[in-house]
Structure to design on (693 residues):
C-alpha cells in the first residue's frame, strides 16, 4: 500500500539549485542524473505537515491520493499549470476527481491528463485548494494527520486539514501595495493603511515593518491596522504583500511617522554631579553621579571643550550609564570636559562641574589616535585598500566608486557601477573586495542591488577608471527588498570570495538551502561554485537574517555580524554548512534549542548594536555599530569573544564599515543621514583612520 521506498529519484533540491544559481547551469547538468530529477514542488498539509502523495508511488491511472512524510520523491512533486491542472510525474498524470463527482467525499486519484473540469484546480490565497468543477476543498479525510491518511474532496470549512502550503505553479510575488498612509496619529498609536496588492493566486498576508523590523503580519484581506508606536520617535512604516507560497512583494513606499509626546514635559533634569576623570596614556575615562528628572533621564551628552564628543543613552527603562571613555586623544595635551543630562523631550540640564585632564606622553591603550581623512555627501559602504595603500570605497546611493588617497585626502571618482538601483531602504551599491591577484588582473568585486535582484559582479579598474566593458555578472538572482539586502564581500585565505546576503524580508528564505538569501555564500573568483561547498550551490552557511559583516581571523576562521529583528543582534563564528537559526531563533531569543542551530558567540541588544561591518586585526574583532553609535573591541580567545570594550559611544554617530588599514590600524566610516532612502548625496559622512596600540 505504501511503497514509499528510499528515493529512487534524485531530490528536487537539485533542480532548484540549477534554477537559482544561473551561472552554473551547464556544468551541473552534465554531471548530474538529470533524467531522474523530479520536476514540481511539494504540497504540504498545514495540519499534518505531510505531503500530498500518490499512494504507493504508482503511476497508473486510478492510483489514490494520501498524505505522507515529505520525501522529495516524484510522487510528491506537483506542477500547477496555466490550465489549472496539478500535474505529477514526468510523463504527466493529473490530479483528478474520480467519476467527475461533485459530492463531498468524492475520491481523488491520478488520471491521464485530459483537460476535463474534474482536473482543474484553484490554489487560493487562504491556503485551500478547490476543485473548479465542484467548488469543494482538498481535504484530509477525518482531519487525520497520520501517514497514509487519504485525501478527498469535502465542503470547504476552514479546517487546517483543508489548508495547504505549496509553491506549485506560483513563483510570482504579489505586486507592491499602493498608497501606504497613516491616520489617527496619537502619542502611542497610529492607523496604518494601504491599497490591496495583486497576485496571480492571492495575497495571503501583509507584513508591516518599520525600518527593517517586522511589527506584525495581518491577513491578506486586511488593508489597515493599528500600530503601537513610541512617542517622539520617528519610524519609517511600510508593508510587503506575501502569497501563500511564500513569495514576498517589494515593499510599499515608506511613510514616516513621529508621534507626539503623551504628556508635555518642560522640566529639565538636574545637573550631573561630581564629574571626575582618570587618564591612561591618551585615553580619558569620565565618571559622574546620576541626574534626576520628573519623567526620566534619557541621555548624557559629554563635551570636550565645547564639542559634544559622546552620548550615552538609556536602554528602555534602564537609565543611561554614568561613565564614558574618550579614546584616541593627542599625547601630552590638556582637555576639559563637562556633562549634561537630557530627557526624552529635549530638556537639557545645567552643566556638571568641569574637569581638566592632561594625557600621557604616549598611547598605551588598545585604541589610539583617530584622524579624519575624508568626508562624503553619500553613504560610504564597501571599502577596501589597494596594494599601493589607496582606498577605494562604494557610495551606496550615488552608485559610484571613489579612489581616496588617505595621506592627502585627495579623492577621484573612478566611475559609476552600471545597473545599480537603491531600494528606498538598505539596498544600493554595497560590498567591495579587491582581487587577491589584483596586480595582474585588476578585478574589483562588487555587490549591488539592481532593478530586479541583488548580484555580485566584477569589473576591472584600469588606469584608475572602472572599465565597465569588462563587467562580468558572477551571481545574480539574490532576492532584493527594501531592507535585509546583506551586502558584504570578503576574500578568504582560501582564495574564495565570501558574500553575506539578507533574507529579503522573508525568513523562509533563510532556512531554504536552495535560496541564495539569508546566507553566507562562497564562490570561486570566476563566480563558479567551489566543489567543496556543502550543498552543491553557492551556499556556505544558512539561517541568517541580515548579515553585513565578514572577517577572517589568523586561523582562517570566518566571523560574521548579523542584524536581528527587534531583540538582539549577533556575532557568529561561521562553519561550513552551519545553520544559524533564523527565523525561529533571533540571537538567543525564540526557538533556539532546535538541534543543529548554531548559537552566536556574542549578542547585542539592538539599541546597543545594529552593527554592520567587522574587521579583525591581530585576532581582535572590531565591530562598527549603527544604532548603537559605537565601535566594539572584542578579543578572539579560542572560539570566544572576550574583554569586550566600547569605543566612540556617540562620538561619531552611526558607524557602518570598519576595515583593516595597511599600517595595522583601522579605517572607519559613518552612516548618519540619508541611509534609509535612495537619494544620492543627502548624507554628511566621515571616514577616519584609527591607530591601534
Ligand atoms: Ca503569487
Ligand atoms: Ca523632564
Ligand atoms: Ca542566529
Ligand atoms: Ca541617501
Amino acid at each position: 500500500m505504501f511503497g514509499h521506498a528510499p528515493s529512487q529519484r534524485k531530490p528536487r533540491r537539485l533542480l532548484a539549485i540549477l534554477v537559482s544559481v544561473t551561472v552554473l547551469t551547464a556544468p551541473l547538468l552534465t554531471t548530474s542524473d538529470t533524467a531522474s530529477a523530479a520536476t514540481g514542488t511539494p504540497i504540504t498539509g498545514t495540519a499534518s505537515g505531510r505531503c500530498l502523495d500518490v499512494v504507493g508511488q504508482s503511476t497508473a491511472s486510478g492510483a489514490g491520493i494520501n498524505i505522507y512524510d515529505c520525501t522529495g520523491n516524484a510522487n510528491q512533486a506537483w506542477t500547477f499549470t496555466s490550465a489549472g491542472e496539478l500535474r505529477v510525474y514526468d510523463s504527466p498524470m493529473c490530479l483528478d476527481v474520480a467519476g467527475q463527482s461533485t459530492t463531498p467525499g468524492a475520491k481523488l486519484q491520478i488520471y491521464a491528463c485530459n483537460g476535463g473540469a474534474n482536473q482543474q484546480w484553484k490554489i487560493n490565497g487562504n491556503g485551500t485548494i478547490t476543485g473548479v468543477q465542484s467548488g469543494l476543498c482538498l481535504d484530509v479525510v477525518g482531519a487525520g494527520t497520520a501517514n497514509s491518511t487519504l485525501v478527498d474532496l469535502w465542503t470547504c470549512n476552514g479546517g487546517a486539514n483543508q489548508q495547504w502550503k505549496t509553491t506549485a505553479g506560483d513563483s510570482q510575488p504579489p505586486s507592491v501595495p499602493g498608497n501606504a498612509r497613516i491616520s489617527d496619529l496619537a502619542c502611542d498609536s497610529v492607523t496604518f493603511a494601504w491599497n490591496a496588492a495583486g497576485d496571480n493566486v492571492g495575497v495571503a498576508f501583509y507584513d508591516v515593518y518599520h525600518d527593517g523590523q517586522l511589527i506584525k503580519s495581518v491577513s491578506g484581506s486586511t488593508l489597515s491596522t493599528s500600530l503601537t508606536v513610541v512617542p517622539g520617535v520617528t519610524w519609517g512604516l511600510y508593508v510587503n504583500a506575501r502569497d501563500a507560497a511564500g513569495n514576498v512583494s517589494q515593499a510599499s513606499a515608506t511613510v514616516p511617522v513621529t508621534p507626539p509626546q503623551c504628556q508635555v514635559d518642560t522640566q529639565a533634569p538636574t545637573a550631573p554631579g561630581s564629574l571626575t576623570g582618570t587618564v591612561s596614556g591618551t585615553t580619558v575615562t569620565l565618571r559622574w553621579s546620576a541626574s534626576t528628572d520628573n519623567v526620566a533621564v534619557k541621555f548624557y551628552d559629554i563635551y570636550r571643550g565645547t564639542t559634544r564628543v559622546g552620548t550615552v543613552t538609556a536602554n528602555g527603562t534602564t537609565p543611561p550609564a554614568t561613565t564614558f571613555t574618550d579614546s584616541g586623544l593627542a599625547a601630552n595635551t590638556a582637555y576639559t570636559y563637562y556633562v549634561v543630562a537630557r530627557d526624552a523631550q529635549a530638556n537639557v540640564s545645567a552643566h556638571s562641574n568641569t574637569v581638566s585632564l592632561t594625557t600621557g606622553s604616549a598611547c598605551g591603550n588598545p585604541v589610539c589616535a583617530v584622524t579624519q581623512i575624508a568626508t562624503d555627501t553619500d553613504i560610504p559602504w564597501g571599502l577596501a585598500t589597494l596594494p599601493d595603500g589607496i582606498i577605494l570605497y562604494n557610495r551606496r546611493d550615488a552608485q559610484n566608486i571613489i579612489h581616496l588617497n588617505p595621506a592627502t585626502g585627495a579623492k577621484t571618482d573612478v566611475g559609476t557601477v552600471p545597473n545599480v538601483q537603491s531600494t528606498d531602504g538598505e539596498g544600493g551599491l554595497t560590498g567591495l573586495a579587491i582581487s587577491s591577484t589584483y596586480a595582474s588582473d585588476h578585478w574589483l568585486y562588487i555587490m549591488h542591488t539592481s532593478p530586479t535582484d541583488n548580484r555580485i559582479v566584477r569589473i576591472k579598474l584600469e588606469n584608475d577608471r572602472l572599465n565597465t566593458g569588462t563587467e562580468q555578472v558572477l551571481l545574480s538572482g539574490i532576492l532584493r527588498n527594501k531592507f535585509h539586502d546583506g551586502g558584504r564581500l570578503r576574500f578568504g585565505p582560501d582564495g574564495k570570495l565570501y558574500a553575506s546576503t539578507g533574507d529579503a524580508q522573508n525568513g523562509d528564505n533563510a532556512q531554504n538551502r536552495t535560496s541564495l538569501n539569508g546566507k553566507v555564500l562562497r564562490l570561486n573568483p570566476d563566480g563558479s561554485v567551489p566543489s567543496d561547498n556543502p550543498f552543491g550551490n553557492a551556499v556556505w552557511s544558512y539561517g541568517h537574517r541580515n548579515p553585513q559583516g565578514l572577517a577572517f581571523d589568523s586561523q582562517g576562521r570566518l566571523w560574521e555580524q548579523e542584524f536581528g529583528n527587534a531583540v538582539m543582534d549577533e556575532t557568529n563564528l561561521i562553519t561550513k554548512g552551519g545553520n544559524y537559526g533564523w527565523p525561529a531563533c533571533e540571537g538567543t531569543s525564540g526557538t533556539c534549542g532546535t538541534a543543529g542551530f548554531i548559537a552566536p558567540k556574542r549578542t547585542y541588544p539592538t539599541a546597543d548594536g545594529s552593527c554592520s561591518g567587522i574587521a579583525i586585526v591581530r585576532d581582535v574583532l572590531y565591530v562598527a555599530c549603527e544604532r548603537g553609535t559605537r565601535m566594539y573591541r572584542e578579543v578572539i580567545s579560542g572560539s570566544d569573544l572576550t574583554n569586550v570594550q566600547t569605543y566612540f559611544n556617540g562620538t561619531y554617530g552611526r558607524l557602518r564599515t570598519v576595515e583593516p588599514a595597511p599600517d595595522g590600524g583601522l579605517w572607519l566610516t559613518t552612516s548618519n543621514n540619508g541611509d534609509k532612502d535612495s537619494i544620492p548625496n543627502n548624507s554628511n559622512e566621515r571616514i577616519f583612520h584609527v591607530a591601534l596600540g
User: Anything to note?
Assistant: The chain has a mean pLDDT of 92. The longest strand covers residues 465-478.
